[in-house]
Structure formats: C-alpha cells, structure tokens
C-alpha cells in the first residue's frame, strides 16, 4: 500500500495564531508581552508572562487567567511562569487583570497548543466484503450481541436497524419521526443511544427489544454527529474539533477534548468507535480514519481507506462513514453513506 502524508489526505488548513490579537481600546494601558511567543506550543512548554506597560504606570499586582480559570498572580509586573503540561490541546485564551493606582484594566491574547505526535499511517488488509443497503445514508455502525446495528440519516428516512452483517438483511428496524435527522448510535449498559443532527434531541432504547425508553435534550448547544463508549462514558462528536464526554446515566456532559495533530486542529469529526482504548474517527468527506488518544485528543495514527471507495459504486458525494469493531473476530467493519458494500478489515 502506498504511504501518504496525513495532511495531503485531510487537506486541512492550519490556523496560524495571531499572538498579537490583544483586545485594546483607548483606556487599555497594558498588553501581554507576546514578543517572544511562538506560533504553536506543546504540553512540555512553558510561557513567561509579563506586561507591556507603555505608559509606565505603577502596577500593584497582576492576576493571570487561562480560559477563564485563574492560574496565578504576581506583585508589580514580575514575570509569571505558566507551565502548559496539564492544559487541553487547542487555544489557550490568556487574560491579565492589572491593578494599578486603585484602578484595574484587562488585556487578552491567545496561543495554540498542538500535539507533539506526528501521526503514523497504519496498513490494513481486507478480510471479507459484504452487501450493504445502498439506500442507507449511514450515520452510525456498531456491533451488539453479534448483530450489526446501523443508524441512518435524512429527514423522512432516518432509522436504525439490527442487521445480519453477512447478508445485509434487516432483522428489525425503528423509524424516526420525519422531523428528525438521525445520527450516531452506541450501546452502553444494555441501552441503545441515538442522536439527531440539529434537533438537539437524543433517544434511549432497550438494546434487546429496541423499545423507546426515554427522549432527552442535549446538555450543550451543539449538533449531534457520532457516538461511541468505553463501557462507562459516552463520547460524542458535534462536527467541530471537539469530542464530548457524556454521563449516560443523566446525559450530562462532563468533559471534552480537542482533536489535534502536530500542526493543526481537525474539524468535522464524525462517526466514532472505541477500539482497544483509542477512538477511531471518520472525518466528514474524507476517506480516512483517525486514531485518537481519548485522554488528550492527540491524533496518533491514521488509516487511508481511499482504495475501498474504488471497490464500490460510491460517488464522490457518498462519504465514507461507519466504523464498527467486532470484538469476537478483532476486525473492523467500515462502510459509507449509500455504499453498496461493507468491508471487514484488519489493521496490521
């Protein structure tokens, strides 16, 4: 198999950080000194924070914040060392609150924290090929009790179904109300969770009977895309660079990660699958699967699956989407929206 550079495949555009984007106005006498700032940082870096004081005011103290969380304070305009070791990948929105002569002033800037890991391309082999419903606008794929469950999108045509993966035959199907655009699914603790795209609504079914047990509203103002779980928490994508961590018991978001390579954030994260402690993720409209560290958001490796498209009747608009791990065979099943085939592959 040919090796490809991940960035030529994803065609992502790195967002160059404007370190000098302090919010200034006529009353702001100070700015964070960004003269030595780098374009990108890593978790083993540290920042030396200090202020530019062009009006030569006498500063009593400075309190520093990162992403609205206080990180420390200094007397006068002493330098403040800020270690990035525990910060999330992504933008660090820095703020200084300056106290001087009985007054105070605020100034802000930001830096971007990226992964240190250069993603490696993994090779794979095709184990088997199975039929897939070409009418299925695939949004989610997951194995449960030996059956392959699939969710589909499009208003008026959204459903999820239990299938015999070897024949593609639908064994049981649940249709959504036409007002909903169905998205990802996952099964945890005997419950099947399903998202909708822009309706901010989710559904919980009994995974054995497929009977609806609960309808819930999203905890955050986000879109619903892909889902997976680690048997304790649900991980949910929203079409941005974020993957949210949800408590399935109360459907509340408890945390999130930002998905980053060693040079840029990765947007349009879509269908997800938990495999051996990593999150495998489709990227919308790209024929690749990223392997992501669920603790940090760092992209550690990737699969180029563009050759699979050539073996189907898929058009350029029929996106690769759908990842399911069969724990019995330790193989991965992948397909796409309106693809006529599902592929069983093994990562080498």
Count of structural domains: 2
Q: How many beta-strand segments?
A: 29
Task: Provide the spatial order of strands within the biggest beta sheet.
Answer: 9-26-25-24-23
In whole angstroms, how far apart are the ends? 12 Å
- CATH homologous superfamily title of the largest domain: YVTN repeat-like/Quinoprotein amine dehydrogenase
What composes the largest sheet? 5 strands, mixed
- Structural shape: elongated
At the first level of CATH, the class of the largest domain is Mainly Beta
Indicate the radius of gyration in whole angstroms: 24 Å
What is the name of the CATH topology of the largest domain?
Answer: Methylamine Dehydrogenase, Chain H
Q: Mean of residue pLDDT?
A: 91
Low-confidence stretches: 11-26
In helices, the fraction of residues equals under 10%
Treating each run of at least 4 consecutive H or I residues as one helix, how many helices? 2
Beta-strand portion reads over 45%
**In the CATH hierarchy, what is the architecture of the largest domain at level 2?**
7 Propeller
- What's the quaternary structure here? single chain
Notes on the structure:
The chain folds into two domains: 11-113, Immunoglobulins (Immunoglobulin-like, Sandwich); 120-347, YVTN repeat-like/Quinoprotein amine dehydrogenase (Methylamine Dehydrogenase, Chain H). The protein contains two helices and 29 strands. A five-stranded mixed sheet has the order 9-26-25-24-23. A four-stranded antiparallel sheet has the order 5-4-7-8, with no helix packed on it. Strands 10-29-28-27 form a four-stranded antiparallel sheet, with no helix packed on it. It is mostly beta strands and 348 residues long. The protein starts with 5 loop residues before the first helix and ends with a strand.
